[in-house]
Amino acid sequence: MNEVSSKKGPFDSGNITGADMDAERRVTYPTEAFFSRDYLEDEKKHLWPKVWQMVERETDLPEPGDWLTYDVADESVIVLRHGDGSLRAFHNVCPHRGRQLVSVPDMLPGKVHDVRGSGRRGFTCGFHGWGFDTDGNNTFVLDPQDWNNELTPEMTCLSPVKVDTWGGYIYINMDPDCMPLGEWMGRAGEILDHFELAKMRYKWRQWAIYDCNWKVAIEAFLEPYHVAGTHSQLLRYGDYYAYSKQYGLHSVSGYDTRDENYKMNESSGTTRSGKAGLDPRVSTYQLIKENYETVNYSASTETLVKAASRLQDELPESATPAEVIAHWMKSAKADDAARGVTWPEIPSDVMAEAGLAWGLFPNQNILHGVTFALCYRVRPYGDDPNKCIFESYALERFPEGEEPETEWVYADPTGENWGAVLAQDFANMAFVHKGMKSSGFRGPLPNPHQEQKVINLHRNLANFIGRGAPRLLGD
Ligand code: FES
Ligand SMILES: [Fe+2]
């Protein structure tokens, strides 16, 4: 099933297969995808108009008439909550002579993230006044007799865009022949459904413009292989060895251990015990506290951190790591229940398969927990392959009525704005982008076990763009 869904692009020859990846074969891939304007033009033709892409959380368009714009590369789409409660999406262009129906300025630091509003009953083009209803039908043409009254509704309506929802997100696809969103999400969607992302709400949301290609930015969050080199302070309380695995279009990573004897599936996600050899009651707390505080108060919750702080008082010194985790989860679940936050019941085999974080093709990342998620999205910035729009946001399950009000905030990439750990990630990006341009760079050597998500991104991109496929090393 995975192979079928990963070959929906127009090109599928000469690429490595999912089986090659599962066998963790060693590969490299060309760097053209990061720098070339031709490649960027091909993304505009073959990638963005063909893929399901996340627009926004559904909760941002709660009422009929609420609307917003979503822009990627040269495309602009209007998404709107219709009077009947369903979502509609249209290309943001007037069919007369092509003015944007809603003017969307370039995204500007501190100024423009998107354009949105409420109470929308239709659209009137600002150029010659043509009108449209919320179904996209034309409602007004000035002087239709000048066309001999031969303009048809098909000629004068807005161009529809497919829209659907998953996990509390609004997704669009500009390809009228695209596969359904459920099929696109595949097994990744089935697994993440257990975490009930739709019931989570924004805790914070920030964005920035970075000096690197969008793929350099998303790749910085696809693998924990960089933790030892980039976030060495985190090694005090935890090991960050990771596995990664392709699921067709999408892929997952999770914590792993280098020693087969210490494999512990249940702790491949964020709620795991601290470093082997330390008192797990103490190290589990230290690990989660440090992660929470230095990743901008995300990737965990206040409830989980507080419950972890009590482990030393509530458990004997003899408690094993597995007992510590079980007790921690039980008491955090009870604490949350007492304040009106219900945990989803997730079968242990699903929890094990769910790992730590998912890369959803092409540009969405979700690091999920039972009651929270830390997420990223990256888009190209206009026509410049050397820049991107980077967004990160934290979701959390809140007691009803206690969800915070948030909006997109532009935040320069400092530790003060994003937390020390994310600032360390940002510090690499521009220099990865610059470094790969060196004539002395022989091509990436991604780790076949720990960085498979990066390889899978390039494998799937090649299926859409028609070049850039990873190739087996030595071939
Ligand atoms: S371009 Fe919209 S009415 Fe002319
Ligand atoms: Fe990182």
UniProtKB/TrEMBL annotation:
Superkingdom field: Bacteria
Keyword Hydrolase: no
Gene Ontology molecular-function annotations: 2 iron, 2 sulfur cluster binding; dioxygenase activity; iron ion binding
InterPro entries: Rieske_2Fe-2S (IPR017941), Rieske_2Fe-2S_sf (IPR036922), Ring_hydroxy_dOase_asu_C_dom (IPR015879), Rng_hydr_dOase-A (IPR001663)
CDD domains in UniProt: Rieske_RO_Alpha_N
Keywords: 2Fe-2S, Dioxygenase, Iron, Iron-sulfur, Metal-binding, Oxidoreductase
UniProt keyword Metal-binding, yes or no: yes
Cofactor(s) needed: Fe cation
All copies of domain Rieske, residue ranges: 52-172
PROSITE patterns recorded: RIESKE
Protein name: Aromatic ring-hydroxylating dioxygenase subunit alpha
Organism in which the protein naturally occurs: Novosphingobium aureum
